[in-house]
Amino acid sequence: MSILRSRLKGAPVVAALALASFMTSTAGQAVTPLAVQKAVDEATDEDAVQPQPAIVQEPAEDSFQHVGEGEASYYGNELAGNRTASGERFNPRALTAAHRTLPLGSKLRVTNQANGKSVIVRINDRGPFAKARLIDVSFAAAQELNLIRAGKGRVRLDLLR
């Protein structure tokens, strides 16, 4: 059985699905390692479930209100776990942002003016504290906007009504 385990460790998803199918089709029967190995070897890519792309519907353009343009920066892992102004713990992988005046919980579309990429974030903190900055976005939002390399960028903010 250890040979089978080592073989399955690097096996593709197809093999795992074939194994699961084999195990359910042989209910009540003795399952030998050779029978399992044969099922894995016979599995094809057609047995695998193909992942479907997520369909995210962007809100209609008239459901946004322009609130400003300026410089954005991001904060990442150095603040992970700290409490935000909303009381939740900061998660750099969440699509969140800090703004000085917008109500906590507001949803905002942030658009990188250099490349046109945009992301919808939720305001959960106060800041930024650098006067030249309009908004601080989480690391995940900065990745979506392609701000990581530069560390900052000019953005447009539109409030989701």
What can you see in these coordinates?
The structure is a single chain. The protein is α/β, with parallel strands linked by helices. It folds into two domains: 2-47; 63-160, Beta Barrel (Barwin-like endoglucanases), CATH 2.40.40. The protein has four helices and six strands. It has a six-stranded mixed beta barrel with strand order 1-5-2-4-3-6. Helix 2 (13-25) packs across helix 3. It starts with a helix and ends with a strand.
Index terms:
single chain, 6 strands, 24% helix, 6-stranded mixed beta barrel, alpha/beta, 2 domains, 27% strand, Barwin-like endoglucanases, 161 residues
Mean pLDDT: 80
CATH class of the largest domain: Mainly Beta
CATH topology tier name of the largest domain: Barwin-like endoglucanases
Strand order of the largest sheet: 1-5-2-4-3-6
The domain count comes to: 2
The helix content, as a percent range, equals 10-25%
Order of helices and strands: HHHEEEEEHE
Number of strands: 6
Unreliable spans are: 1-11
Structural class: alpha/beta
Instruction: Assess the beta-strand content as a share of residues.
Output: 25-35%
**Count the helices. How many?**
4
Q: Spell out the CATH superfamily of the largest domain.
A: RlpA-like domain
Largest sheet: 6 strands, mixed, barrel
* CATH architecture annotation name of the largest domain: Beta Barrel
Overall 3D form: elongated
Radius of gyration: 24 Å
The first-to-last residue Cα distance is 59 Å
